[in-house]
Amino acid sequence: MRLTVLGCAGSFPGPESACSAYLVEADGFRLLIDFGSGSLSALQRYAGIDAVDAILLTHLHCDHMLDACTYVVVRRYAPGGPMPPLPVYAPLGAAERISAAYSSENEPVDDVYTFYGLQPGTFPIGPFTVTADRVNHPIETYGVRVEHGGHVLAYSSDTAPCEPLLRLAQGADLFLCEASYLDGIPNPPDLHLTGGEAGEAATKADVRRLLLTHLVPAWGSEASTVEAACAAYAGPVEVVRPGARYDL
């Protein structure tokens, strides 16, 4: 199983990165987890414009799904003819959300995507066993656990501290965890994690490696986020970058 980071900027594209998008590959199958604003460019750079076999959208905030709208053009108007409908696993309402963002006429996109409603539970996507659970964010949002060949990738999506996050991450080889907020200052509740809270979750879940993502460069210091995470978690800690690849 291989993870490729396409985009990792939090809330809006940064000067060096698109928003959240992560390509997970195994046995020739490519699952794109989230498709945030700007990440279609990175998909072409690090994988290929048609290098997607299924999409999972953890929630319907723009920084996690907006380029699924732009991708309609890629698949509908390909020079060789329309591409087959692509499976999309997402919260209910994703079809309407993408249609509204793609066209002011709310043009249907069911020729491009086949939608499957996310809900808590375990299910297959290609060769992967995926477990999804609701996490602590203002809209319906799912963290995910992806298993293949005895290895585990856990992804927090956007969340404040919560028990489902710990269950999803339990014993993971890689824990891809957001760390949007800074430690030591008042932050809005039930929205995002700090570096320290990401480290605490990694420790409680006994993960092997912590990958920090969804940092917002315009809001504060990456170094302080890493320092806070390392104070709470004794294992390896890294801030992900676009184009970074991790093999499990």
UniProtKB/TrEMBL annotation:
Gene3D superfamilies per UniProt: Ribonuclease Z/Hydroxyacylglutathione hydrolase-like
Metallo-beta-lactamase domain segment(s): 18-196
One Pfam family recorded for the sequence: Lactamase_B_2
Alphabetized GO MF terms: 3'-tRNA processing endoribonuclease activity
CDD domains: RNaseZ_short-form-like_MBL-fold
SMART domains reported for this sequence: Lactamase_B
Family annotation (InterPro entries): Metallo-B-lactamas, RibonucZ/Hydroxyglut_hydro
Protein name: Ribonuclease BN (tRNA processing enzyme)
